[in-house]
C-alpha cells in the first residue's frame, strides 16, 4: 500500500497511558466515524506499516484514543510518536452535492458561467489560506479560489465543476 492509495487520517500527538495508548489528532469533520476501525497504516520512515487496533474511542472533540495490538508499553508508544496515520481511499465517506475530495476532481473541467470552459483541473493548492484549483487552459495556468460562493455545481457524471468567478479574475489569466 502506498500513500497515493491512501488518505491522511491524522497524527499521533501524545501518549495516553503507561500501557501504550496514544492520542491521535484526526483530520476529519466527523472524527467519530473512525471509532470502529480495525486497523490503520502508520507511516514509519518511508513505509506504511499496518497496525491492528485493540481499542479506539473518541477522546474530546477531534482526538481518538487508540490502543494498538503491537504497542503494549510506553517505550513502544515512543517509537511511533509523531507518526502519521493513513487509511485506504476506499474508506473515505462518499460525498454528494457540491462537496468533494481534492483527489477526486483532478481532471474535471472548470466551466465558468460567463467565460465557459476555463480549463482542466490539474491539482489543488491547499497550502495557502484559501485553497485554489490549479487549472490549465491553452498552456496557461489559472488559480481559482475554492469556496461555496464560487462553486455553483459539481457534476460528477460529466466531470465538470461549474463556477461563477469574480469579475476580472479569468481575464487576468486568459485575457
From TrEMBL:
Keyword annotations from UniProtKB, A to Z: Chaperone, Cytoplasm, Ribosome biogenesis, rRNA processing
UniProt domain Ribosome maturation factor RimM PRC barrel: residue ranges: 102-169
Annotated InterPro entries: PRC_barrel-like_sf (IPR011033), PRC_RimM (IPR056792), RimM (IPR011961), RimM_N (IPR002676), RimM_N_sf (IPR036976), Transl_B-barrel_sf (IPR009000)
Short name of any one Pfam family annotated for the protein: RimM
Subcellular localization(s) per the UniProt record: Cytoplasm
Subcellular location, principal: cytoplasm
Domain of life according to the entry: Bacteria
Family, similarity comment: Belongs to the RimM family.
Assembly and interaction partners: Binds ribosomal protein uS19.
Name used for this protein in its record: Ribosome maturation factor RimM
Amino acid at each position: 500500500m502506498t500513500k497515493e492509495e491512501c488518505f491522511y487520517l491524522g497524527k499521533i500527538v501524545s501518549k495516553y497511558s503507561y500501557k501504550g495508548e496514544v492520542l491521535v489528532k484526526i483530520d476529519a469533520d466527523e472524527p467519530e466515524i473512525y471509532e470502529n476501525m480495525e486497523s490503520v497504516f502508520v507511516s514509519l520512515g518511508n513505509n506504511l506499516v499496518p497496525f491492528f487496533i485493540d481499542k479506539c474511542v473518541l477522546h474530546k472533540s477531534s482526538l481518538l484514543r487508540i490502543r494498538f495490538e503491537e504497542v503494549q508499553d510506553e517505550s513502544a508508544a515512543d517509537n511511533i510518536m509523531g507518526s502519521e496515520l493513513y487509511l485506504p481511499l476506499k474508506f473515505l465517506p462518499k460525498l454528494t452535492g457540491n462537496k468533494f475530495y481534492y483527489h477526486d476532481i483532478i481532471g474535471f473541467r472548470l466551466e465558468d458561467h460567463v467565460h465557459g470552459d476555463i480549463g482542466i483541473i490539474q491539482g489543488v493548492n491547499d497550502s495557502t489560506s484559501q485553497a485554489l484549483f490549479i487549472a490549465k487552459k491553452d498552456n496557461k495556468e489559472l488559480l481559482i479560489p475554492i469556496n461555496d460562493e464560487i462553486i455553483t455545481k459539481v457534476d460528477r457524471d460529466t466531470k465538470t465543476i461549474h463556477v461563477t468567478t469574480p469579475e476580472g479574475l479569468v481575464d487576468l489569466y486568459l485575457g
